[in-house]
Amino acid sequence: MFRSASLLGATLPMLLLGTACAQPVDGDLSSEAGTIRVETVVGDLSHPWAIAVLPDGGMLVTEREGRLRHVSAGGALSAPLSGVPAVETAGQGGLLDVALDPDFAANRLVYLSFSEGGDGGNSTAVARGRLSDDLSGLDAVEVIFSQSPKVDSSGHFGSRLVFGRDGNLFVTLGDRQSGAFRGEAQNLGSHIGKIVRIRPDGSVPDDNPFVGRAGALPEIWAWGIRNSQAAALHPETGLLWEIEHGPRGGDELNVIRPGENYGWPLVTLGVEYSGLTIGDGLKTAPDMVDAIYSWTPVIAPSGMLFYSGEAFPDWQGDLFVGGLASTALVRLELDGERVVHEERLLEPLKQRIRDVAEGPDGALYVATDEAEGRILRIVPAR
Q: Which active-site residues does the annotation give?
């Protein structure tokens, strides 16, 4: 439902909680769907990066420094779980996304993305292990994928993990924020600046678009990607949607189709951080896919969810995106592959929103990427 274009991007007022010198978090906020309540589920987290909701309403939460935590449905925070692979933590790197196997109830498999050190620098890697019955750690952990080549950089790891309907795993991979490697996003012989698709054991599906093509890595599903830290599967079409960070301007929402080129760095809606033009300044080009929506100034997108819960009936089918620079949970109303309305929630909290998830009760959960990070629960106010 399209409610009013005049409200696009509006900042919503918040009822002040606490003193002027304290940062209020818990309390009631206005939204276009009515008053919502924000509650802290758990604090004392250091830069939480991702949330995976467990069947019982608990969750697994990654902290960028390399810790994986269990949070019970009642909000109890565990000690760091054992079995997490060695993580190279620097800059944007560390322990990043976490995802549950589609058959988690039977196999208890958990997937982690992280920055992996090695010869030549570091890269995005994916590991999987079995969550122990007592929730204390991961067993039989193995690395199933490593981005190639490794780069001496601490930026643009991408790193979102999304399972397709067929059980194969999409992994978003950044361009590594290195001038020497920027053009690799257009090189099919490199994983840099790509989205890859692998089987749960890391092997390559036979129907990947570049299987058998000389000079192309068979894991590649899509290319020309800058740095995607937001991705989710569309509930009706089964297509992967992703949002990538623009440079100065030009965050892009894209619908990902196999074998397509999304342009970076030959095509971009942004400019260099210095203000200079990137390449030839192209905004579009033949044989390259245009974004369906963009943000300038950037929101710095991270985390993404198609909402399907009962708690907020007016929001069913909407797309939610975490905003780091915008300190907002961005809600997008859709008409097919078109964005028809935007609302920004949580802005008054001034928290960097790193990830968003949906609980079994339809509540929304967000991770705040702060030194004193939290998991917040969003429900209708009663």
A: 156
Structure tokens at 297: 């100034």
Domain boundaries, the chain: 5-45+160-380
Name which CATH class applies to 5-45+160-380. mainly beta
Over the stretch 260-317, which tens digit does the pLDDT of each residue have?
999 999 999 999 999 999 999 999 999 999 999 999 999 999 999 999 999 999 999 9
Which tokens go with 232?
A: 């989710």
**Across the chain, what does the average pLDDT equal?**
94
Q: What span, in angstroms and rounded, lies between the C-alpha atoms of 147 and 157? A: 10
| C-alpha span between 210 and 188 (Å, rounded) | 9
Name the pTM for this structure: 0.93
